[in-house]
Backbone:
């Protein structure tokens, strides 16, 4: 029995941030911003909007757009790195707001760019183990709240978006779904939110100095880039080998939409034709764990993803953490 | 492995914004007027595809000139 991603809905916050707006803010040529990121537009959560609010909206859209009975959900996973509180789990708060059945489990999955593949792997375990039958999988982040006002580099990349997916087993498919995951905590501080929790909390002095009430994102872009171009091509080779497939057997490659130059370098290194790779970061930016479900949704709407296609999904980034799988749509 | 001169020339070509001769083996590449973090990524990508050596950002930080970088790559090939 293989894993099936049955429905996806997306929630976009109202505010958008274009290159034109960034170029006026930073007095930089907007073409230069596009050239270095491949991004034209990003979404920004409202001041009082949390990731859990966005995830709630995405789930409500999913129930409405796909006529899903919320009482049929027997498990929920919320993937984010922007939780309401350290405790309790934000998933409990979302679960209550959505009015999901009391006899259904939920948990927070604290992961970034590898989060969607991680969530799929965990969902598959729950489904195969007979613990759940229909899983609501939510992703949402408000990364823009931890970006310094004067940090053009990071503000050019990150975007706040939420997604909701329904994950079930395909009982008619005899094949298994395989996953590969990996971790290298040596890169933990190459991309992290400084002064944001127990190790180094947000202190009054820090807020006074930085104006950052929730901590501040720091990224060593060159180290992260180096990690990605080294790890992802091998990850793709390894999952193909696990399935005993070749690149030609994959109809569409959906990689975490990090930044254009990183993706372009990875695609060239894997040596796959560009028409087999779906890219949409130009319109949406890097929305962390939401990029893969957003790409699946967008590819379907644009006619690039059709029923029955074999799709490779790879998530990689903060941690460092990575994961890959191949699913039939 | 290609010569140091070719290495410098190739990197200059990869970083499209540079004037011919602007980059030399001996100058501190961070002193180039238009130097940006993007150039570091371009160098890492070029070295990875040309020599199959994945430099880290820290490797680039430790070096000051393309000559130093060239010999670092040579030690890793």
Residues:
């Amino acid at each position: 029995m293989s894993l099936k991603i049955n429905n996806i809905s997306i929630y976009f916050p109202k505010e958008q941030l274009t290159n034109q707006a960034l170029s006026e803010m930073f007095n930089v040529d907007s073409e230069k911003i596009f050239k270095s990121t491949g991004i034209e537009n990003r979404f920004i959560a409202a001041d009082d909007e949390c990731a859990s609010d966005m995830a709630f909206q995405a789930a409500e859209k999913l129930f409405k757009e796909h006529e899903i009975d919320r009482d049929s959900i027997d498990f929920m996973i919320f993937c984010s790195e922007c939780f309401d509180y350290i405790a309790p789990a934000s998933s409990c708060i979302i679960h209550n707001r959505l009015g999901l059945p009391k006899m259904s489990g939920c948990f927070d999955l604290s992961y970034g760019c590898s989060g969607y593949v991680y969530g799929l792997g965990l969902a598959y375990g729950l489904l195969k183990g007979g613990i759940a039958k229909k899983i609501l999988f939510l992703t949402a982040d408000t990364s823009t709240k931890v970006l310094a006002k004067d940090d053009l580099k990071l503000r050019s990349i990150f975007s706040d978006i939420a997604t909701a997916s329904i994950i079930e087993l395909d009982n008619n498919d005899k094949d298994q779904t395989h996953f590969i995951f990996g971790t290298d905590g040596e890169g933990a501080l190459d991309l992290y939110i400084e002064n944001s929790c127990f190790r180094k909390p947000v202190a009054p002095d820090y807020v006074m100095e930085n104006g950052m009430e929730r901590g501040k994102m720091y990224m060593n872009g060159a180290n992260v880039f180096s990690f990605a171009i080294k790890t992802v091509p091998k990850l793709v080779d390894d999952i193909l080998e696990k399935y005993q497939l070749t690149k030609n057997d994959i109809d569409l490659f959906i990689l975490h939409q990090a930044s254009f130059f990183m993706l372009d370098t990875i695609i060239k290194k894997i040596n796959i034709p560009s028409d087999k790779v779906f890219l949409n970061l130009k319109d949406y930016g890097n929305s962390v764990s939401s990029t893969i479900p957003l790409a699946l949704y967008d590819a379907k709407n644009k006619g690039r993803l059709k029923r029955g296609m074999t799709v490779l999904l790879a998530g990689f980034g903060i941690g460092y953490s990575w994961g890959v799988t191949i699913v039939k749509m | 492995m290609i010569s140091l001169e070719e290495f410098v020339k190739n990197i200059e070509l990869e970083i499209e914004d540079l004037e011919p001769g602007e980059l030399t083996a001996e100058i501190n590449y961070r002193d180039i007027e238009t130097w940006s973090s993007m150039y570091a990524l371009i160098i890492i990508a070029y070295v990875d595809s040309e020599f199959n050596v994945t430099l880290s950002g820290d490797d680039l930080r430790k070096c000051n000139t393309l000559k130093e970088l060239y010999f670092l790559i040579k030690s890793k090939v």
